[in-house]
Every structure is written in C-alpha cells, then in structure tokens.
C-alpha cells in the first residue's frame, strides 16, 4: 500500500531559488572527444567537501563556505583546477585531458588494479579492524536520537508553479529551496520530527527506542507516509557486506567482496576534525549491478570510517527511484572508538530517470549524542510495546522543541512548518490529499464514512455472470478503536443480491484485545487456499476475477456467521479464538456437494450446516505495522510468519451435521541471499480427524485465472485434487536481474529472473470417500504432485509473466501441462 501511496503522489505532482548556500557549482565532466567521464572526483580546493560524477558525468556540489576553486580528477586523466568567478556557477563543461605521463596519473589508468593498489591495502585494514569499532564493543549502550523525516516535491520550475493544480495555493512556492545534493529545487510537503532514548544490549541482541516527542505537519493520513519513508530507510551498518534498501541487497563499498565489484582509488590524505585520514574514492566495475559510487575518509591508525558519502548508480536495476544518496559521519565518542553521530539518507522517486523529470524526495536525517555504556537493563525492559500511543508525546510545545532539537531549524525550515499548517485549511489541498489517499487505500472518504474498496466494484464468474459490488466502512483515523464495514453485491446472471457486514471493537489497546463478529451470504470458490481465513468478509479472486482460463462454475453459496476475539500480549505474537456457524450448498446446477447420510447409501443431503470452534496462534517476527487502530496496515517489508490453527466441528449444536477436528500449520520464510536476490520458502501441513463431506474437505488450490497466485498451483483445475491430510512445500527465488544485467543487449531492459518449484502430497480416508455422493471423483495427490516455473519480472516496470510446467500426473485428462500467468504490481 505504501508503494501505491508514493506512486499516487508521483502521478499527481509530475503532471501538474531561493539561494541559501555560499558556493554552488554544477556541470558535466567530459574527455577530449566530448564523451562524459563517469565517477570523476570533484572537490572544493583545500577542503574535504567533494562529490563523484554520475554515469553521465554530471555533478552538483555546494557548501555554506565560500570557495574560489574546484579540483576535478579521474583515473587516467590529468587533474584540472577550475576558478569560480562567482558564488553560484551552473552548467560548467569541464574537459579533462588524458595523462601524458605516469606522473600525471592520479593512481591508475582504466579500471583499477586488484594488485599493488594502496587503496586495497587500506581496505583490508578496515576489514581487520571493523569489529573494534562501533557499539558492538560494549555489552550495553544508551544514547539520545533526533530524527527528521521529510517529503518534498522536486524539480520545481515556473511552468510547474503556474499549473492549475496549484490554483489558490501559490503561496506555497515561497518556500521553494535548493537541494545541496542534486542542485534541484524542491518544495516540502511533509515534515516529521522525533526524539528518542535508545537502549541496546549486544549480548541479548536487543534494541529499544523509546519515543519522547513527535511533531508532524503535512498530508492528512501522514502516519502512512511517515512509516513508508522510515521503512525504506531502515537502519544499516556500513561495515556489513550487504546493505538492504527497497527490499534489495546492495554490495557495501566496505564489503569483503567489494574488490570484485568496485574500483578503489586512494585520492589523498588530510585532517578531518583533527584526525588524519586517508581519502578513498570508489565506483562500480560494471553497470546494472546494485552498487554505489562515492568516497570515504578512514582514520590512519584505527582504520575506522570517519566519513562516507555514497550514491546508488543510475544504471542499478531498481524502479521508480532516480537517486539514492547516503551520508554517515563518525566521531571519537569513547576513548578511540568511532561511533555514528550523523546519518542522512535521501531518495529521489520519479516515474523515469531522465535528468529533468519531476518527482519526490524522501529524506531522513538522524543524529546521535550523549552515549553511555555498560549500564545493564533487565530483559523485561526490552519487551516491545504492542500498541502503545502516549498522546503527550505528540503535544509538545514549540518551546520544548526549541530546547531539545539537536540542531536548530533554520528560518526557512520554520517557514515551511507555517506554510504546511496553513495549507491544511486550503480546499484545493484537501482535494489533492483525498485523491492521493483514494489511490493508496482504495476508499473514497466522506467525513467518517469511506466508500469502497473501489477496486472490487466489478467481477465475473459462470454462476453470477457480471457482478457489481459496493461497500463502505467507518473511518475516524489511524487510532480508531472500533470499525463497522459492509457490502452488497448483485449478479446479473443468477439475479441475486449478496451481502456481508462485520464489526470490530478493540477493548484493550495495550494488549490489542479485539472482539469481532459478522455475517456473510455470498457465492464463493471453496478451496482457493489451504490455510483457512478468519475474515468474515474475505473473498477469493477465483470467484470474482474478470477473466478466467477455464470454467469457474464450481461455486458454493455460503452463509457464514462468526464471533471471535484476538489478543496480542507480545508484539507480533497473536492468539485468536472464535466460533462460526455456516451453511454450504451448491450455487450451480452443474456442481454438487451431495453426501450420503446412511451406511446403505440410499439417502443423500445437498447442504451442510456446521458449527465450529477455532483457536489460532500466529507469530510474525520483524513485521512492521502502521497506526494504532483496530485495523492496521502492514508495511511492505519481508518478514517470516508461522501459525498453528486448530478447529473443532460440533455435531448437533444448532443442527450441525458433523463432528471433526482439523489442525493446520503454515510457515513462510523469506531469505535475502546478498547480491543473488531473495528466496521464499512456504510450508503448509494439515490433517482432519473425522468423517466429512466435500464442502469441508481440504481442496488442493488450483488456478484457472490468468493471474499468478502464490497460494495456488498454476496447472491444477478447481477440485482436481482433494484431501483430508496434506503437506505442501514451495520455493521461489527472484534473482533481481543478476544474470540479465550481464547480457549486453538485455541490460537496458532491467528484467528480473524468477524461478520456483512447488509440490503437494495428500491422502483421503476410506470413510470420507464412502460418504461422497457429489458425482465428483475424489483424487488425492498420494504420489506427489509437483510443478516448476520460470518467470520474468519488471517488464515495463509493472508486469510479471510466469511460465509453469506440470512435473507429474502428466497423463491426467483435461488438465494443463503448461500455463502462462501474469501479475501486475509496482516493483522497486
């Protein structure tokens, strides 16, 4: 959902100078033939302020100090000094000449050598000493943290300012600023500041952040924007071999494998904050890999990083992001130990990577101070709050912020706060804000009633024909303690109305004790997934997709009533218990759920009435959520999940037909394998004890749509395999373009390779076979059904195509040996 939110903002703002630094310079570095020189080093003379040109040879550099000269250099070229005639100098065209002698070469020519390179000797010293620097040296630590998160529209020009989109809001452009990183104009639209006390125990591997104050101004629904930015910019350790951003693994320039993917150049050495440091420039050996360009200063005795600047190369296989820029600064805080004191990250989100394209900046600045060490806290101290929201944290006065910020806001930043607060009362801005939230959530807001989701308005299946659906929910904000929602639908072919409604109430906020209940009467494709859902309003795409690759008429009319409670006593550990009553009957004359009710097989029944009690335990470590409401959104970051579900069916209770017990296990584990991409492993196990009819059996989920579905088997038809005990295992892996990027003619496509395999084993008891009167021949995958697939993702940045082959049961009639499925999404 957070990705959709950002893309919504991009679409709205894409189509629709003040000067604060003392010295600003931009331009392009070229060779004698006019070709750009990528990764050239540009610095202000006699300073540590520098930048590395991008793949197109372009650069922008600024400083609050006044400089009169820049120095430009690159391996294999003579160094060149450029005099600055004025404080602001744009669009320089700087030509470097090839070195005439070895003395003129900065260090090497062409790609840097992996042998006899002094930069690599220093890099090896960094590897040796990396465990002797940082917080991990101490058993316990604590410190203060100040964080500022910001969202900005960028590349603001006169045509953009005159757009009808901003009619009545022209005053906002008084706050246009210039980025010190890119030199582009930008306008803040969202700002959040936070103060934390941070505690850590390296032995327990526990970290706790306690928020002391929070201040926000900008879009309504800003909790979603804030969580999106903070999720993108998760904490990282520059000394690790791989750094994860946008769910992708980048090779760190300090990685022990960095020699294979980076060129390193020892530029010079100088004092940085009274510490003598080596200055090393790095840039990628190849295009399209997930790497950085930049430079770092490393202390000559401890070989600890003092300062590092790096930017993701434009050719990296990542969508919707034109630039990613990172800065970290380290100071000697305790004896000779270098600790992180400043961390800055900025991403430029855009629809394309053209130089002049408009987009959005997402920025996070973090500062750390007042470090203390080896003050032990009890284990219980690190227990995470499940749903804690202290309103006092959000009501701090301006005087409090003036006294407690790590750095004072500039006059212009204070003006931004005033502008954003004023903007909230402007009708046009409210309309833009509402449009963004519709695209992000799928709901149209009318005061405290949301209409939607609009993306479920249309559907089609063999029973209902064209299906129209309309619905609504209550919504008072991200801290709602209760919610009502419902829908009604109509099928033009069966001429019937369907409906569903539910309610939830969070009785205890601290432990998220939630009571829920509801009723749904609708047409459903039973067996679209093995692991049962407790959502009374849930509906599978199998019975409502617009297009299908086969007959989807084996549908069931379901009348389901539920009551349940849920509690989360420990963060991401949930316990659920509930009671349900349902009736099941065939929705089509060509499909039967009939079963025998006597041993002689003379009496049949076509409907099922069933009372059921269920209890479920779920654990989702590393899961991140948004808001404190009774319903929360899940942040789009990978996390493992495990759940165990027990169900007991009663016979006779409310005229219930069957007594049985069912137990199910679900486990999912994502695995990031450095530069090789990410794997997902999913295991599902289930068994039913007792005699049950077709409507209560475990149907192995087939897929007769044209769309990929992780929980289904691509080449199975609906009801092709049925079981009362089963085990499924699947593995899929996304190489994130690792191999396509090595093929010259495919490099620019930025396609991504995907492979996978999945299988299922299951059986059916003789008792369950004996009562089957549906006319459907029971078939269980008792010889293991499996299929394998290969796919291409990131086609046109939003399309994925999967090719699936059946690996067993090849001679089964009327089935698919091969299928092609597609899916759409916004992929980074």
UniProtKB/TrEMBL annotation:
Asked whether the keyword Membrane is assigned, the reply is no
The organism sits in which domain of life?
Bacteria
**Pfam hit, one:** DUF5686
Signal peptide region: 1-21
**Sorted alphabetically, which SUPFAM superfamilies does this protein's record hold?**
Carboxypeptidase regulatory domain-like
Does Signal count among this protein's keywords?
Answer: yes
Cross-referenced InterPro entries, in alphabetical order? Answer: CarboxyPept-like_regulatory (IPR008969), DUF5686 (IPR043741)
Q: Which UniProt keywords apply?
A: Signal
Full protein name? DUF5686 family protein
Organism this protein belongs to:
Flavobacterium fructosi
């Amino acid at each position: 959902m957070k990705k959709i939110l950002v893309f919504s903002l991009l679409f709205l703002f894409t189509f629709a100078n003040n000067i604060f630094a003392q010295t600003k310079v931009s331009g392009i570095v070229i060779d004698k033939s006019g070709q750009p020189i990528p990764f050239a080093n540009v610095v202000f003379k006699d300073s540590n302020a520098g930048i590395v040109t991008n793949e197109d040879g372009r650069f922008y550099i600024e400083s609050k100090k006044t400089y009169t000269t820049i120095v430009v250099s690159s391996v294999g070229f003579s160094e060149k000094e450029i005099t600055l005639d004025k404080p602001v100098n744009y669009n320089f065209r700087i030509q470097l000449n090839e070195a005439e002698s070895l003395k003129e070469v900065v260090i090497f020519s062409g790609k840097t050598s992996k042998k006899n390179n002094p930069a690599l000797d220093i890099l090896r010293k960094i590897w040796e000493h990396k465990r002797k620097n940082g917080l991990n040296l101490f058993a316990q630590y604590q410190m203060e943290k100040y964080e500022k998160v910001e969202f900005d529209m960028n590349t603001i020009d006169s045509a953009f300012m005159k757009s009808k989109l901003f009619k009545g809001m022209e005053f906002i452009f008084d706050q246009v600023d210039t980025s010190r990183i890119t030199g582009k104009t930008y306008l803040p639209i969202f700002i959040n500041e936070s103060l934390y006390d941070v505690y850590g125990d390296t032995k327990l591997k526990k970290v706790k952040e306690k928020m002391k104050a929070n201040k926000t101004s900008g879009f309504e629904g800003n909790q979603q924007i804030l969580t999106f930015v903070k999720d993108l910019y998760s904490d990282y350790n520059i000394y690790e071999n791989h750094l994860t951003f946008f769910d992708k693994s980048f090779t760190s320039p300090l990685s022990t494998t960095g020699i294979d993917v980076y060129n390193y150049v020892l530029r010079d050495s100088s004092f940085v904050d009274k510490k003598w440091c080596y200055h090393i420039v790095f840039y990628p050996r190849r295009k399209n890999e997930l790497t950085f360009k930049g430079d770092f200063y490393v202390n000559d005795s401890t070989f600890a990083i003092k300062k590092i600047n790096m930017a993701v190369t434009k050719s990296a296989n990542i969508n919707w992001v034109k630039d990613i820029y990172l800065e970290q600064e380290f100071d000697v805080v305790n004896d000779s130990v270098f600790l992180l004191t400043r961390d800055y990250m900025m991403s430029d989100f855009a629809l394309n990577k053209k130089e002049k394209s408009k987009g959005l900046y997402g920025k996070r600045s973090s500062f750390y101070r007042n470090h203390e060490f080896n003050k032990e806290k009890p284990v219980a101290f690190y227990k995470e709050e499940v749903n804690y929201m202290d309103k006092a944290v959000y009501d701090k006065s301006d005087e409090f912020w003036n006294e407690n910020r790590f750095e004072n806001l500039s006059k212009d930043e204070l003006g931004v706060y005033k502008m954003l607060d004023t903007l909230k009362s402007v009708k046009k801005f409210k309309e833009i804000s509402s449009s963004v939230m519709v695209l992000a959530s799928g709901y149209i807001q009318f005061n405290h009633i949301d209409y939607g989701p609009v993306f479920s308005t249309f559907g089609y299946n063999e029973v209902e024909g064209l299906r129209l659906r309309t619905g609504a929910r209550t919504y008072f904000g991200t801290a709602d303690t209760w919610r009502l929602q419902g829908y009604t639908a109509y099928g033009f072919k069966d001429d019937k109305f369907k409906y569903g409604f539910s309610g939830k109430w969070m009785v205890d906020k601290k432990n998220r004790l939630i009571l829920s209940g509801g009723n749904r009467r609708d047409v459903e494709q039973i067996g679209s997934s093995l692991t049962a859902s407790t959502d009374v309003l849930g509906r599978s795409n199998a019975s409502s997709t617009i297009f299908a690759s086969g007959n989807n008429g084996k549908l069931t009319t379901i009348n389901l009533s539920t009551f349940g409670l849920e509690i989360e006593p420990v963060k991401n550990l949930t316990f659920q218990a509930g009671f349900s009553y349902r009736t099941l009957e065939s929705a089509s004359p060509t499909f039967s759920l009939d079963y025998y009710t006597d041993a002689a097989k003379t009496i049949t029944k076509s409907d099922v009435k069933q009372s059921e009690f269920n209890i479920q335990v779920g654990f989702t470590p590393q899961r991140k959520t948004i808001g404190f409401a009774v319903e929360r959104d899940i942040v789009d970051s990978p996390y493992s999940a495990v759940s165990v579900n027990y169900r007991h069916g009663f016979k006779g209770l409310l005229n219930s037909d069957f007594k049985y017990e069912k137990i199910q296990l679900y486990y999912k584990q994502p695995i990031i394998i450095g530069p090789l991409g990410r794997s997902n492993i999913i295991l599902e196990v289930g068994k039913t004890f007792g005699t049950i009819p077709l409507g209560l059996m475990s149907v192995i989920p087939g897929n007769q749509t044209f769309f990929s579905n992780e929980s289904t088997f691509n080449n199975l038809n609906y009801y092709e395999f049925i079981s009362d005990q089963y085990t499924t295992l699947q593995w899929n892996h996304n190489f994130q373009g690792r191999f396509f990027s090595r093929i010259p003619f495919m490099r620019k496509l930025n396609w991504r390779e995907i492979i996978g395999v999945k299988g299922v084993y299951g059986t059916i008891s003789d008792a369950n076979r004996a009562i089957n009167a549906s006319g459907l021949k029971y078939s269980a995958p008792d010889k293991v059904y499996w299929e394998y697939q290969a796919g291409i993702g990131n086609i046109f940045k939003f399309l994925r195509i999967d090719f699936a082959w059946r690996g067993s049961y090849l001679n089964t009639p009327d089935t698919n040996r091969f299928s092609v499925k597609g899916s759409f999404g916004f992929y980074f």
